Amino acid sequence: MRLSRSFIPTLKETPTEAQIVSHRLMLRAGLIRQHAAGIYNWLPLGTRVLQNIAQIVREEQNAAGAQEIIMPTVQSGELWKESGRYDDYGPEMLRIKDRHERDMLYGPTHEEVVTDIFRNNVKSYRDLPLNLYQIHWKFRDEVRPRFGVMRGREFLMKDAYSFDTDFARAKHAYNQMFVAYLRTFARMGLRAIPMRADSGPIGGDMSHEFIVLAETGESAVFCHKGLLEKPIPQGVNYEGDLQAIVDDWTSLYAATEEKHDAAVAAKLGADLVSARGIEVGHIFHFGTKYSAAMKATVAGPDGTNITPMMGSYGIGVSRLAGAIIEASHDDAGIIWPESVAPYRVGLINLKTGDAACDAACADLYAKLAAAGVSVLYDDRDERPGVKFANMDLIGVPWHVVIGPKGLAKGQIELKRRAGGAREELSIDAVLQKLST
Ligand code: ATP
Ligand code: MG
Questions:
Q1: CA distance 282 to 338
Q2: Which of 146, 240, 253, 316 sits most deeply, having the most CB atoms within 10 A of its CB?
Q3: pTM listed for this prediction
Q4: Which ligand 1 atom minimizes the distance to the CA of 140?
Q5: Over the stretch 215-260, which tens digit does the pLDDT of each residue have?
Q6: Whose C-alpha lies nearest to ligand 1, atom 3?
Q7: 42-59: b or e for each residue (b if 16 or more CB lie within 10 Å)?
Q8: Ligand 1 atom at minimum distance from 145 CA
Q9: Which listed ligand is nearest to 323 at the C-alpha?
């Protein structure tokens, strides 16, 4: 993309309405614009980042055996009356009447809808296990939308729902999501720590929130410092037994404020980390709560009906864009991990209008594109200082700088945004390095 043609409305001034750094940088780098309280437009750069995050989530969900679907954002209130949540949900639910005065709502979550799909289409125990997920917009009329996309009212969520015939299998489904989550967040350069979380009226220990430690996090959290270093599982066989991996992570103390046990934590002494955190995901087993209420059953092997056990598994896809910036930025701007960066390379032409610079840039731009490398090419007629500052703010991982002096010696500059290391290389060497 040529910067001269792109829609990236960056801001020089720090927006005063933004209280945390990720929100400020998302506005300044032109990723998002507010539409109404807690409701955002995602501009081209933000959209690319959001799509990259969603793609990582999708790949790891698929690897774990979940299948992608798309459910409606606007739901019928009737289903929620069946589950009993229509009245219970409270003012966070955006209620809508259609032209026939029917009760509709903008979905804050999708347990009812997915249970309805299940009961209408799945008839036999042989069709289980089943895990269905979507990556779609939710609306929750939060009391205090704040921190930009971190706590929005409309936000993008990955929500998966598992159905199993018995508890042992439901636990396996839970473990699959547990391991998939460890891998998903690690691929985005984040360390998200699974912490025991409130499991509601069902009780049990099958509720974990995945928390990224950050000063600006909304929750107080406590964990063993060993969890900050634990290696992420590689080459996982999701059909095999995953219990050992889950036990390895859950044997060390980690709890959100609601589940925190100060007496147990005190025994950790210097190994205890007490910090603030951002909840980027939540996995939850809730037994037959919805399947029983909505009369979803399948025929078992002996012909008697089985009410499936369910779990739900959320990831805050749009919140992650903010969380990644909280974890990776400096005074100059965003530092995107390669896996989610809106472009891999920022190409800076130091002297637009100089025939040699223009030709070298155009040539490298075309060759990188041919090699499948995404490039943001600053071809504008601006001062070098403006271009450097802009590329640092946007935060693409690699900056290539082409100017008349270096070019005369056959050299261009390659800079790593993270850490700022620079090298002088030939154009071919840069092409080689960035194409692999
Ligand atoms: P929170 O305690 O932050 O309100 P929650 O417990 O309501 O979260 P879930 O219902 O488990 O969240 O939703 C799954 C995920 O969706 C959360 O882990 C979080 O990452 C994300 N999420 C929830 N609410 C919001 C919101 N208002 N804005 C952005 N992301 C959100
Ligand atoms: Mg909430």
A1: 25
A2: 316
A3: 0.97
A4: 27
A5: 999 999 999 999 999 999 999 999 999 999 999 999 999 999 999 9
A6: 279
A7: bbebbebbbebbbebbbe
A8: 27
A9: 1
